[in-house]
Amino acid sequence: MMRTKTSAKDLLMRYTPVAVALSLLAATSSSVLLSQPPEQLDPRATMLLSEGRAAAAAGNIDGAIDAYESALTVEPGSVTVLLSLADATRRQGMQGKALHYYRVALTSDPRNVTALAGEGMALAEKGATEKANRNLARLQTLCGKDCAEAQSLAGAIAKGPTPRMVTADAVTPKTAVSEN
Questions:
Q1: 41 in the Ramachandran plot: left (φ > 0), alpha (ψ -120 to 50) or beta?
Q2: What is the pLDDT of residues 164-173, one digit of tens each?
Q3: Is 169 exposed, middle or buried (CB count within 10 Å of its CB: 0-12, 13-18, 19+)?
Q4: 83: helix, coil or strand?
Q5: Burial 129-154 (b: 16+ CB within 10 A, else e)
């Protein structure tokens, strides 16, 4: 009886390090296999992206959006193009459209911290601070509290929603009849 305990103990001691090493190898190789390779863009899309960035830097947001939309037709579903387009539309004040582009980018890359931060900023600008705080919490678990994306989203949440402009149609004058 004593012999079977020692042989079981011997087997455990002999094969445990090998089993641990193999499990670490499997975990490392599976995470490498699941990571996405860097996105290779069509040269035309790259040219349109750089045109859009130049237009955005010059303050021509409409021109930037046009260039990004053209790049999106060349490279449909490209996360890089979608993020640029989402950022430009958010800067133009079209948070709803920006949210659409961020969500499409997050569909293909759910751990993209830039898309999470951008979506959170658009939500905060719309006044949906609870949803923006959820994005902030997810960002902080992915990249930590000190990453640039988490800090910029925290600043946008603290700033609050952007003021909405009132159109002329929303304010109708009251007609008053007066006698001369």
A1: beta
A2: 665 666 666 6
A3: exposed
A4: helix
A5: bebbbebbebbbeebeeeeebbeebb
